[in-house]
Every structure is written in structure tokens, then in C-alpha cells.
Amino acid sequence: MTERLLRAARAGDRAAFDALTEPHRGELQVHCYRMLGSVEDAEDAVQETLLSAWLGLAGFEGRASLRTWLYRIATNRCLNLLRAGRRVAQPADAPTPPTARGEVVWLQPYPGALLDDIPDDAPGPEARYESREAISLAFTRALQLLPPPQRAALLMRDVLGYRAAEAADLLGVTVDSLNGSLKRARAALADAPTPTDPIDPDPELLERFVTAFTSGSVDDLVALMTDDVWVRMPPLPFEYHGIEAAGSVLSAVTPRRHAIERMVPTDANRQPAWGEYVRDPVAEGLHLVGVLVVGFAGGKVCEITHFDTSVAARLGLPRSLA
């Protein structure tokens, strides 16, 4: 079937090309999201990848699988975007984050609905991360702090599970160069806060979290947290580490939390997430004021990330409720 479709695609049959590539679109988009940290940029990169593949199909010699060839194109496209500096640099006069790590202010949550067809097991013989862990918000954020070559090397080896020689060939580097980048990337991630349970939190724990978050009780909320909890709020360049710092910032926004009348559950990065809705005194209905994505480790909250409403539509959250 694949050979027949490939022959037809090479003869100019776009429908045959789409049939060949569509099964890989979802995982390619996740890969580009890991590289770029943005859902929109990932979508654009995949579109450009497929266009490049269509235009260059005559050059596909079949020495590697079509999937591997598409990953080569997608990775190089992402590296080119990163080299071109598509991201807007943080202003020189931006406030200094309360912790030294620095927030990735452009990071977006990835809609859980787009992950339904992505396998949740290790995709290659040498993968170190399960698919679920490798799409977590904390892991994706940690990737953005790596130089692009290290990011690509780690994704090829530890997430996609390609062997060293295959990964080096995909990236157009020597095995020694790849291994050097990989070693540095692994060392950096070892120091990064990336814990997220691969198992869904107990529904009772989620309910307790929502109750504590909206009740205004800082003590009840802090009691659900790990000692090394992180609180972040992109696109603001602030992050808070540890129970004391988290308690302070959550206490400061207690009136805002207490005003929330409804938390609508959704899914982002295979993690629990909620849309926050408050009463509109003029229109009377409820309107969206933010999106919360929460990470868990060891049965406790290890990460709270608050996003503005710009990410809501992709997560299936309406702007208002009756």
C-alpha cells in the first residue's frame, strides 16, 4: 500500500501524498511544539514541513522510513526558525524574575484533544522518556532553556528513541558532536524542575485542589503542595519556587481567587487544567479570566502555571458562560 501511494505521489497525486503523510501529522506537530514551545509555531512548522516534503518528494530515496524523513525535515525547519530568532527577545528593562532560572514567557499549553491519537509508550528503542512525560509542561519548558542543537539532540535520542548513528544522520552532524550535545542537554535537564506523575491524579485530589484554590484559603492550598512546588504565570516573567514563595504569591492574589465562581476542567499537555470564570457585573454571565494548568508528583501539586485567556480557545474553553 505504501509503495503504491508513494509511486502515485511521485507522479503528482496530492491525495496519495496526503494519505502517506497524514498519519504522521499529529506526532510531527508535537515534536515541533517541543522544539518551539508554541502551538501556533508548531502548526506553521508542520505545514512548511509537508510543503517541503511534497516539493522534494523526488529526492526521497527510501533509505530511511518516510516517517524518519519527515522528522528530518521538521527538525531542520524548527532549527532554522530558532536560528532566525523568530522569538521576541525579553526587553532589557523587564523585571527580574524572583528566582534565578528565568521564565519562558512565550510557552503555551498544548491542547489535550490533539494528543488523543499520540501513542503513550516509548516510541523508540533508546527513548528515556514516556510520551506522557515528554509532553508535560515542565519538560517542554525545560527544553526551551536548552540551546537549539542540544534540544534537537535530546529529542532525537531520549524522546524519539533514535540510535546515535541515526540521530546524527538526521541532524547532519557527527556522532561525536551529537553525543557532546546530548551529554550537555542531559546534564541541564537533570538540574531542571521537570517532575510530573505519569499517572492521572486521583479525582478526589483534583476536587480538593479546586476547592482550596477558589476558597481563598492559602493554608489549605499549601497543604496540597510539594516542598519544591513551582508557581508560574507566563507571559509575565515571574516564577516562584518553594512553599513559602508559592504561599506568598497565592496569598497576594486571594481576592482574585475568591472571586472565581466556576472552574471548568479541560486538558493541557496531558495534565489537569481549568478555565477560571468570574461573574460579570454588567453582562451578568460568567466570563473567562485565566487558564490554570497543574502538575502533580507523589500525590501532591508540584507546579501551578497560570496563563492568560489567549490560550483558551485551543483548549476548548468559551470566553463566557451563561
UniProtKB/TrEMBL annotation:
Q: Where do the SnoaL-like domain residues begin and end? A: 207-303
Domain called RNA polymerase sigma factor 70 region 4 type: residue spans: 137-189
Alphabetic keyword roster? Nucleotidyltransferase, Sigma factor, Transcription, Transcription regulation, Transferase
Q: Which domain of life is it from?
A: Bacteria
**What EC number(s) has UniProt assigned to this enzyme?**
2.7.7.6
The RNA polymerase sigma-70 region domain sits at: 22-87
Spell out the molecular function terms from Gene Ontology: DNA-directed RNA polymerase activity
Keyword Transferase belongs to the record: yes
The family database entries (Pfam families) matched by this protein are listed as: Sigma70_r2, Sigma70_r4_2, SnoaL_2
**Per its UniProt entry, what is the enzyme's top EC class, as one word?**
transferase
Annotated InterPro entries: NTF2-like_dom_sf, RNA_pol_sigma-70-like, RNA_pol_sigma-70_dom, RNA_pol_sigma-G_actinobac, RNA_pol_sigma70_r2, RNA_pol_sigma70_r4_t2, RNA_pol_sigma_r2, RNA_pol_sigma_r3/r4-like
Q: Which family does it belong to?
A: Belongs to the sigma-70 factor family. ECF subfamily.
Assembly and partners? Interacts transiently with the RNA polymerase catalytic core formed by RpoA, RpoB, RpoC and RpoZ (2 alpha, 1 beta, 1 beta' and 1 omega subunit) to form the RNA polymerase holoenzyme that can initiate transcription.
What is the protein name stated in its UniProt record? Answer: RNA polymerase subunit sigma-70
Identify the species of origin: Microbacterium salsuginis
